[in-house]
Protein backbone atom coordinates (compact mmCIF):
# COMPACT_ATOMS: atom_id res chain seq x y z
CA UNK A 1 0.00 0.00 0.00
CA UNK A 2 2.87 2.37 0.77
CA UNK A 3 4.39 1.92 -2.68
CA UNK A 4 0.99 2.27 -4.36
CA UNK A 5 0.39 5.58 -2.58
CA UNK A 6 3.91 6.61 -3.53
CA UNK A 7 3.14 6.00 -7.20
CA UNK A 8 -0.09 8.01 -7.00
CA UNK A 9 1.61 10.94 -5.28
CA UNK A 10 4.63 10.73 -7.58
CA UNK A 11 2.41 10.88 -10.66
CA UNK A 12 0.64 13.96 -9.29
CA UNK A 13 4.01 15.58 -8.55
CA UNK A 14 5.30 14.92 -12.07
CA UNK A 15 2.33 16.82 -13.49
CA UNK A 16 3.28 20.01 -11.63
CA UNK A 17 7.09 19.84 -11.38
CA UNK A 18 9.99 19.27 -13.72
CA UNK A 19 12.07 16.09 -13.61
CA UNK A 20 15.06 17.58 -11.77
CA UNK A 21 12.88 19.07 -9.02
CA UNK A 22 11.03 15.77 -8.57
CA UNK A 23 14.28 13.82 -8.38
CA UNK A 24 15.82 16.17 -5.82
CA UNK A 25 12.70 16.18 -3.64
CA UNK A 26 12.56 12.41 -3.95
CA UNK A 27 15.91 12.18 -2.17
CA UNK A 28 14.25 13.48 1.00
CA UNK A 29 13.22 9.86 1.47
CA UNK A 30 16.61 9.46 3.15
CA UNK A 31 15.39 11.84 5.87
CA UNK A 32 12.19 9.87 6.31
CA UNK A 33 14.13 6.61 6.24
CA UNK A 34 16.33 7.87 9.06
CA UNK A 35 13.25 8.86 11.06
CA UNK A 36 11.60 5.46 10.56
CA UNK A 37 14.82 3.63 11.40
CA UNK A 38 15.15 5.61 14.64
CA UNK A 39 11.51 4.88 15.46
CA UNK A 40 11.57 1.15 14.65
CA UNK A 41 15.12 0.09 15.47
CA UNK A 42 16.16 2.77 18.00
CA UNK A 43 19.33 3.38 15.97
CA UNK A 44 21.43 6.45 16.76
CA UNK A 45 23.13 8.44 14.01
CA UNK A 46 26.60 9.91 14.07
CA UNK A 47 27.42 13.60 13.64
CA UNK A 48 28.56 12.95 10.04
CA UNK A 49 25.23 11.35 9.17
CA UNK A 50 23.25 14.22 10.72
CA UNK A 51 25.29 16.74 8.68
CA UNK A 52 24.57 14.74 5.52
CA UNK A 53 20.85 14.70 6.28
CA UNK A 54 20.92 18.46 6.88
CA UNK A 55 22.57 18.96 3.47
CA UNK A 56 19.81 16.98 1.78
CA UNK A 57 17.16 18.97 3.66
CA UNK A 58 18.81 22.22 2.54
CA UNK A 59 18.83 21.00 -1.06
CA UNK A 60 15.11 20.25 -0.84
CA UNK A 61 14.42 23.72 0.57
CA UNK A 62 16.42 25.33 -2.25
CA UNK A 63 14.51 23.34 -4.84
CA UNK A 64 11.15 24.28 -3.32
CA UNK A 65 12.09 27.98 -3.32
CA UNK A 66 13.63 28.02 -6.80
CA UNK A 67 12.38 31.25 -8.32
CA UNK A 68 13.23 30.36 -11.92
CA UNK A 69 11.35 27.08 -11.75
CA UNK A 70 8.48 28.80 -9.98
CA UNK A 71 8.02 31.18 -12.90
CA UNK A 72 8.42 28.39 -15.44
CA UNK A 73 5.94 26.02 -13.83
CA UNK A 74 3.04 28.46 -13.78
CA UNK A 75 0.61 28.95 -10.87
CA UNK A 76 2.05 28.89 -7.38
CA UNK A 77 -0.76 26.66 -6.09
CA UNK A 78 0.04 23.99 -8.65
CA UNK A 79 3.71 24.03 -7.71
CA UNK A 80 2.93 23.85 -3.98
CA UNK A 81 0.62 20.91 -4.65
CA UNK A 82 3.40 19.19 -6.61
CA UNK A 83 5.95 19.77 -3.84
CA UNK A 84 3.54 18.37 -1.24
CA UNK A 85 2.88 15.30 -3.39
CA UNK A 86 6.61 14.76 -3.98
CA UNK A 87 7.36 14.94 -0.25
CA UNK A 88 4.48 12.58 0.55
CA UNK A 89 5.75 10.16 -2.10
CA UNK A 90 9.22 10.30 -0.55
CA UNK A 91 7.75 9.53 2.88
CA UNK A 92 5.82 6.54 1.53
CA UNK A 93 8.92 5.35 -0.30
CA UNK A 94 10.99 5.53 2.88
CA UNK A 95 8.40 3.63 4.91
CA UNK A 96 8.13 0.98 2.23
CA UNK A 97 11.92 0.76 1.91
CA UNK A 98 12.35 0.07 5.64
CA UNK A 99 9.78 -2.72 5.54
CA UNK A 100 11.20 -4.08 2.28
CA UNK A 101 14.74 -4.18 3.62
CA UNK A 102 13.56 -6.11 6.68
CA UNK A 103 11.82 -8.63 4.42
CA UNK A 104 14.79 -9.01 2.06
CA UNK A 105 17.28 -9.45 4.89
CA UNK A 106 15.15 -12.31 6.20
CA UNK A 107 15.59 -14.14 2.88
CA UNK A 108 12.68 -13.06 0.69
CA UNK A 109 13.27 -13.34 -3.05
CA UNK A 110 13.38 -9.89 -4.78
CA UNK A 111 11.37 -11.08 -7.80
CA UNK A 112 8.64 -12.62 -5.64
CA UNK A 113 8.53 -9.49 -3.50
CA UNK A 114 8.20 -7.30 -6.61
CA UNK A 115 5.28 -9.44 -7.81
CA UNK A 116 3.60 -9.13 -4.42
CA UNK A 117 4.07 -5.36 -4.47
CA UNK A 118 2.55 -5.21 -7.96
CA UNK A 119 -0.54 -7.15 -6.86
CA UNK A 120 -0.87 -5.02 -3.74
CA UNK A 121 -0.54 -1.83 -5.77
CA UNK A 122 -3.21 -3.00 -8.21
CA UNK A 123 -5.62 -3.75 -5.36
CA UNK A 124 -4.91 -0.35 -3.80
CA UNK A 125 -5.61 1.43 -7.09
CA UNK A 126 -8.90 -0.43 -7.51
CA UNK A 127 -9.94 0.51 -3.99
CA UNK A 128 -9.02 4.19 -4.40
CA UNK A 129 -10.65 4.71 -7.81
CA UNK A 130 -14.18 5.30 -6.37
CA UNK A 131 -12.73 7.86 -3.95
CA UNK A 132 -11.30 9.92 -6.81
CA UNK A 133 -14.81 10.49 -8.22
CA UNK A 134 -13.61 10.59 -11.79
CA UNK A 135 -16.46 10.49 -14.30
CA UNK A 136 -14.31 9.97 -17.38
CA UNK A 137 -14.88 6.78 -19.33
CA UNK A 138 -12.10 4.41 -20.33
CA UNK A 139 -11.55 6.09 -23.70
CA UNK A 140 -11.04 9.49 -22.09
CA UNK A 141 -8.72 8.04 -19.44
CA UNK A 142 -6.51 6.46 -22.12
CA UNK A 143 -6.53 9.51 -24.40
CA UNK A 144 -3.06 10.40 -25.62
CA UNK A 145 -1.54 7.01 -24.86
CA UNK A 146 0.93 5.70 -27.42
CA UNK A 147 3.46 2.89 -27.57
CA UNK A 148 5.95 5.32 -26.04
CA UNK A 149 3.80 5.33 -22.89
CA UNK A 150 5.09 1.82 -22.19
CA UNK A 151 8.66 3.09 -21.85
CA UNK A 152 8.26 4.70 -18.39
CA UNK A 153 6.11 1.77 -17.27
CA UNK A 154 8.78 -0.76 -18.23
CA UNK A 155 11.49 1.47 -16.78
CA UNK A 156 9.69 1.67 -13.42
CA UNK A 157 9.05 -2.08 -13.43
CA UNK A 158 12.66 -2.94 -14.18
CA UNK A 159 13.86 -0.32 -11.72
CA UNK A 160 11.76 -1.81 -8.94
CA UNK A 161 13.29 -5.25 -9.47
CA UNK A 162 16.81 -3.83 -9.65
CA UNK A 163 16.29 -1.79 -6.48
CA UNK A 164 15.31 -4.95 -4.64
CA UNK A 165 18.37 -6.81 -5.92
CA UNK A 166 20.70 -3.91 -5.12
CA UNK A 167 19.24 -3.51 -1.62
CA UNK A 168 19.69 -7.21 -0.88
CA UNK A 169 23.01 -7.90 -2.63
CA UNK A 170 25.04 -4.71 -2.60
CA UNK A 171 23.83 -2.82 0.45
CA UNK A 172 23.08 0.84 1.05
CA UNK A 173 26.49 2.16 -0.05
CA UNK A 174 26.24 0.98 -3.64
CA UNK A 175 22.58 1.97 -3.69
CA UNK A 176 23.61 5.51 -2.70
CA UNK A 177 26.09 5.57 -5.58
CA UNK A 178 23.28 4.70 -7.97
CA UNK A 179 21.13 7.46 -6.47
CA UNK A 180 23.87 10.01 -7.16
CA UNK A 181 24.24 8.70 -10.71
CA UNK A 182 20.47 8.99 -11.22
CA UNK A 183 20.58 12.65 -10.20
CA UNK A 184 23.36 13.40 -12.66
CA UNK A 185 21.61 11.40 -15.38
CA UNK A 186 18.34 13.27 -14.84
CA UNK A 187 20.08 16.62 -15.13
CA UNK A 188 21.95 15.52 -18.26
CA UNK A 189 18.82 14.22 -19.97
CA UNK A 190 16.99 17.45 -19.12
CA UNK A 191 19.72 19.45 -20.82
CA UNK A 192 19.71 17.21 -23.91
CA UNK A 193 15.92 17.15 -24.31
CA UNK A 194 14.98 20.72 -23.37
CA UNK A 195 18.12 22.33 -24.85
CA UNK A 196 18.80 24.60 -21.89
CA UNK A 197 20.66 24.35 -18.62
CA UNK A 198 18.85 23.99 -15.28
CA UNK A 199 18.81 27.00 -13.01
CA UNK A 200 21.71 27.73 -10.68
CA UNK A 201 19.55 26.75 -7.71
CA UNK A 202 18.72 23.38 -9.27
CA UNK A 203 22.38 22.65 -9.99
CA UNK A 204 23.33 23.65 -6.44
CA UNK A 205 20.60 21.36 -5.11
CA UNK A 206 21.92 18.44 -7.17
CA UNK A 207 25.44 19.07 -5.86
CA UNK A 208 24.20 19.26 -2.26
CA UNK A 209 22.22 16.03 -2.56
CA UNK A 210 25.13 14.19 -4.18
CA UNK A 211 27.54 15.43 -1.50
CA UNK A 212 25.06 14.59 1.25
CA UNK A 213 24.58 11.04 -0.02
CA UNK A 214 28.33 10.55 -0.31
CA UNK A 215 28.88 11.89 3.20
CA UNK A 216 26.04 9.86 4.68
CA UNK A 217 27.35 6.56 3.29
CA UNK A 218 31.02 7.52 3.73
CA UNK A 219 31.76 6.74 0.10
CA UNK A 220 35.25 8.22 0.31
CA UNK A 221 36.38 5.68 2.87
CA UNK A 222 34.77 2.89 0.84
CA UNK A 223 36.66 3.95 -2.29
CA UNK A 224 39.96 4.03 -0.35
CA UNK A 225 39.22 0.59 1.08
CA UNK A 226 38.45 -0.70 -2.40
CA UNK A 227 41.81 0.39 -3.81
CA UNK A 228 43.61 -0.99 -0.73
CA UNK A 229 41.96 -4.38 -1.06
CA UNK A 230 43.95 -7.59 -1.02
CA UNK A 231 41.37 -9.69 -2.82
CA UNK A 232 41.23 -9.77 -6.64
CA UNK A 233 38.77 -7.54 -8.44
CA UNK A 234 36.71 -10.50 -9.63
CA UNK A 235 36.11 -11.59 -6.05
CA UNK A 236 35.23 -8.08 -4.93
CA UNK A 237 32.72 -7.63 -7.75
CA UNK A 238 31.20 -11.07 -7.33
CA UNK A 239 28.07 -9.72 -5.52
CA UNK A 240 27.18 -7.86 -8.72
CA UNK A 241 25.98 -11.13 -10.25
CA UNK A 242 22.21 -11.34 -10.35
CA UNK A 243 21.05 -14.63 -8.87
CA UNK A 244 17.48 -15.82 -9.37
CA UNK A 245 15.90 -18.12 -6.82
CA UNK A 246 16.07 -21.18 -9.08
CA UNK A 247 19.73 -20.49 -9.85
CA UNK A 248 20.60 -20.36 -6.15
CA UNK A 249 18.63 -23.57 -5.58
CA UNK A 250 20.58 -25.38 -8.28
CA UNK A 251 23.88 -24.14 -6.92
CA UNK A 252 22.99 -25.36 -3.45
CA UNK A 253 22.24 -28.91 -4.70
CA UNK A 254 25.10 -29.87 -7.04
CA UNK A 255 25.12 -33.39 -8.44
CA UNK A 256 26.98 -35.27 -11.16
CA UNK A 257 26.68 -34.18 -14.74
CA UNK A 258 24.23 -36.23 -16.78
CA UNK A 259 24.49 -36.61 -20.55
CA UNK A 260 21.16 -36.15 -22.33
CA UNK A 261 20.59 -36.83 -26.02
CA UNK A 262 17.80 -35.24 -28.03
CA UNK A 263 17.46 -35.32 -31.83
CA UNK A 264 21.11 -36.17 -32.30
CA UNK A 265 22.37 -33.30 -30.15
CA UNK A 266 24.05 -33.79 -26.79
CA UNK A 267 22.82 -31.63 -23.94
CA UNK A 268 24.74 -31.39 -20.70
CA UNK A 269 22.64 -30.96 -17.61
CA UNK A 270 24.88 -29.43 -14.98
CA UNK A 271 22.60 -29.90 -12.01
CA UNK A 272 19.39 -31.71 -11.18
CA UNK A 273 16.80 -30.65 -8.68
UniProtKB/TrEMBL annotation:
GO molecular function, one term: pyrimidine nucleotide-sugar transmembrane transporter activity
Protein known as: ROCK1 protein
PANTHER family given in the database record: NUCLEOTIDE-SUGAR TRANSMEMBRANE TRANSPORTER
Species per Swiss-Prot/TrEMBL record: Symbiodinium pilosum
Subcellular location: Membrane
Chain ranges passing through the membrane: 50-69, 81-99, 111-132, 144-164, 176-193, 205-227
Keyword annotations: Membrane, Transmembrane, Transmembrane helix
Coiled coil (residue ranges): none
Lineage: Eukaryota, Sar, Alveolata, Dinophyceae, Suessiales
Gene Ontology terms: cellular component: Golgi membrane
Stored InterPro entries: Nuc_sug_transpt
Topology term for the membrane: Multi-pass membrane protein
Amino acid sequence: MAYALQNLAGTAANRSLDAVTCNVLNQTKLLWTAAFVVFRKQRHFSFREWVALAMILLASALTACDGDSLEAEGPCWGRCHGIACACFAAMCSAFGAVLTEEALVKGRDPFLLSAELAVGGLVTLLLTMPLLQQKENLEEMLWGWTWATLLPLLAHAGGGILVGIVTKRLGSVNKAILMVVSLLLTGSLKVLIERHLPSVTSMASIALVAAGLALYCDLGQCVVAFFQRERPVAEVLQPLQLHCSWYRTLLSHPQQRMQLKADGFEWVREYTA
